[in-house]
Amino acid sequence: MLKFRIHPPMKSSESDPDDDAMRRLQNGEDRALNELMERWQKPLRAHLYRECGRWVVANEIAQEVFVRIWQGRAGYRGQGKFRSWLFRIARNQMHNMRRKQSRHPEVAWDSVVEPTMPDSTWAEREGKFNQVRDAVSSLPEDLLEAVILAEYERLSLKEVGEVCGCSTRAVEGRLYRAREILKKILGKNLVVHGF
């Protein structure tokens, strides 16, 4: 007699410790969430910082992401990579934060407090860094997200597609358009490592 499974089984714990932790979390072992937080909090906060440019906001959103993981633990099926699911939740929380900010804008402290002037070498490096950061930040949101996930987070094109909810070809198109825009903004003389 043939037996069919309606849902594919989750991966074994040897292949993915994140899936194992999620399975344990689903079974009531709350400390499994601590393992996930220890493993993913730093990379997640760094990703969110690159998205929003403020550590306080990045920390707040990262905490909310882990709350959402705990709340949504019963719905996790392990059918994709945990990392993709995590960044998808982070993406949604970032969108929520941006909507909130658009309704209630804040003044950035770095625009109020005048920084001290570093030496000329530091100023030159900082100038180039700021130029690249500003150029990348000026990209449309869908292109910015693809660049951050692919270039900074080093997600594969497939994983970027899973996070963004689009195909691999769409991700390739977004990265191509982002490169073209950055070339126009930064000029041909400025080389951006890995991009």
Descriptive report:
This protein has helices spanning 17-26, 31-52, 55-71, 82-103, 109-112, 120-137, 141-152, 157-164, 168-186. It is mainly α. The chain is built from nine helices and no strands. The longest helix has 22 residues, at 31-52. It folds into two domains: 11-110, RNA polymerase sigma factor, region 2, helix turn helix motif (Rna Polymerase Sigma Factor, Chain: A, Orthogonal Bundle); 121-190, Orthogonal Bundle (Arc Repressor Mutant, subunit A), CATH 1.10.10. The relative contact order is 0.09. The model is unreliable at 1-13 and 107-115 (pLDDT under 50).
Mean pLDDT: 80
CATH architecture of the largest domain: Orthogonal Bundle
Beta-strand percentage range: under 5%
Shape: globular
Order of helices and strands: HHHHHHHHH
Helix amount, in percent?
Answer: 55-70%
Specify the CATH class of the largest domain.
Mainly Alpha
Class based on secondary structure composition and strand pairing: mainly alpha
Question: Quick gist of this model?
Answer:
With 195 residues, this protein is mainly α.
Topology:
Blueprint: H1 17-26, H2 31-52, H3 55-71, H4 82-103, H5 109-112, H6 120-137, H7 141-152, H8 157-164, H9 168-186
Helix pairs in contact: 1-2, 2-3, 2-4, 3-4, 4-8, 6-9, 7-8, 7-9, 8-9
Q: Which properties best describe this structure?
A:
single chain; 195 residues; mainly alpha; Rna Polymerase Sigma Factor, Chain: A; Arc Repressor Mutant, subunit A; 2 domains; 0% strand; globular
